Amino acid sequence: MSEVYAARRTRLRERCNAAGSAAALISRPANVRYLAGAAPQRAALLIGKREDLLVCTGPPDEKPTEGRPDEALPVHTLPGPGPAGDPAVAAADLAASQGADSLAVEEHHLTVARHRAIRSVAPRLRLADLGGAVEQLRVVKDEEEISCLRIGAEIADQALGELLESILVGRTERHLALELERRLVDHGADGPAFPTSVATGPNSGRRGHRPTDRRVEEGDFLSVCLGATYRGYRCEIGRTFVIGTSPADWQIELYDLVFAAQRAGREMLAPGSAYRDVDRAARQVLDSAGYAEGLPPLTGHGVGLEIDEDPQLAPAAMGKLDACVPVTVEPGVHLPGRGGVRIDDTLVVRPEADGGPELLTITTKELLAL
Amino acid sequence: MSEVYAARRTRLRERCNAAGSAAALISRPANVRYLAGAAPQRAALLIGKREDLLVCTGPPDEKPTEGRPDEALPVHTLPGPGPAGDPAVAAADLAASQGADSLAVEEHHLTVARHRAIRSVAPRLRLADLGGAVEQLRVVKDEEEISCLRIGAEIADQALGELLESILVGRTERHLALELERRLVDHGADGPAFPTSVATGPNSGRRGHRPTDRRVEEGDFLSVCLGATYRGYRCEIGRTFVIGTSPADWQIELYDLVFAAQRAGREMLAPGSAYRDVDRAARQVLDSAGYAEGLPPLTGHGVGLEIDEDPQLAPAAMGKLDACVPVTVEPGVHLPGRGGVRIDDTLVVRPEADGGPELLTITTKELLAL
Fold first, then answer.
1. Model confidence pLDDT, tens digit, residues A291-323
2. How many domains in chain B?
3. Residue to substitute from B112, B127, B207, interface A, most A β-carbons within 10 A
4. By the 8 A CB rule, do A299 and A278 touch?
5. Between the ranges A205-214, A292-301, B354-363, where is the mean pLDDT highest?
6. Number of Cβ within a 10 Å radius of residue A287
7. Which of A240, B106, B286, B359 is positioned for an S-S bond with A223, CB 3.0–4.6 A?
8. Domain that holds residue A347
9. Does residue B167 belong to the interface with chain A, where contact is any CB pair within 8 Å?
10. Domain check: are A60 and A156 in the same one?
């Protein structure tokens, strides 16, 4: 694995040097993990002219679930905590003492106060903005990363499948969410990829709904959104069910509509498709049925070391999909007071020659009555 | 409740004006919640010369567990997401258009990128640093806040008590942690106050240990640290037990020592005690028994809307305790390869006339053999 991390750092170093910075300071945890194999708390990674260095406040944990730091990477452990023990500041100090004259930092992650502390320990260092350079490198995944996502999706499918076999009526959203999270861990997840969402009745179909004490009732829509973290990689699945023997007509109609929108989005996933076209394909189906208002601002997003990464599949997004980019497709409609439907898959963009988009979350999308 | 929030904002406004800023922009979520009653995602609070304003990206949730925004506070909802929809930037824009010439911002929370965006929408606004002004206001709690902490502590005591009655040998750290978190919610917590730590055998006694798949064995030390969030307020309790019928001599000795250190710390809790003296009282007991090395950097910390707030009870901390400040006292010793002991309580500083420190976490601190 060590070569993988070294290769990623080399790509970043080349970008930095091309942009005129001798060195780069990575502080955003997911970016540190991507480049170093692990992200101990508050660690910072220095990408030097020749040598790189991981600066930590304590010995890195060696648990497989949290990643292992690349063995080829020197680690510098600070003696104590507190502002004097800020790894980002210490790393900048080291960069200056190694003769770097410029340092690119993550201005979208560093606070103004930490940035000022860096300037004060290394006043001669010219600070530049690295921007989202590491986030950009992270968009296209290698097969090892995709395999972690695939295993995470299998775990989420299993947890969801088991829930569907249990009795649901009378249980609260909060209990169902906790049970799903326990099942994720039972099946080998590091933990949930994000707070599990269980929404019943009038809450169903709301994006990011946080579980309440409402109990499942006959006739409810039940929408569930969950994901597993596996070796740091986070996937997502969302499904909507009906509680009771037969769904009402409005429920079948709404479900079919959201399903059609989600399929339209999935069918647009191909290398070269514009992000906004994927969004438009799904959005158009809902728009033309009269649900233009109240739609969520995006149809999907990238997943990886974070659950919400680039790209954003949204009306104003710029850019085109590449092969090996994992994304969600998750349109939904929520009718205030009545509830709604969301259907959410994680897929990997693949060329048509390879069979088209690879669906990672394989739980059925038929409307099940539970 | 509305008057409470209004009074807090008035105190902050006075501090700001005294420091020469006409207005203040609060972006750190716990600070927004403290001053506005709730902290919708990415919301920002503008403390104006006369009027205050909460800026959100969507309608605030109205769930009791997440707080309700003060009804007397005007809410401005932004139309869309994205950088144009950053509530902090929009609030600064509003401050400028209302004629403010200076704005104090939370430089320890705002990123460099967001700070720049504020400068660019409101170039004539003089930006100052609010520093930890709101965090300072939050240190001393009112009785309503303490009552939330007291209920949270009762919930944590209940969850821990039930765990102790179940069979533990053979179960993994991760499962025990998940079960504790489920019990917290069962008893009415909003959720865990922080990731529950369960540490067995050689892991026991490690501060912030993240649960692994190690199973509880006969003869182990088992150390558990958990807390409940109740109406936003977070408490903490930690205990260490022995698994099996009779603890080994080294276990009894180590336990008695940590217990003595923890008691020494608790006994120093009084209005006017220096933070560092509380730390020293506990630390000295462990030091003089030969455990100076490897001790955690602090003996305790404040709790409230965040689990780790001011004050820090640490060797270099400056300041003195006031009445109505809730803190943890949590010394511990971890012997690499063997395990260790941590004992952690949440207490509220009270004058001696009121009976001295109020212990919120009342689970026994005898060494129980389970």
1. 988 788 899 999 999 999 999 999 999 999 999
2. 2
3. B112
4. yes
5. B354-363
6. 14
7. A240
8. 140-359
9. no
10. no
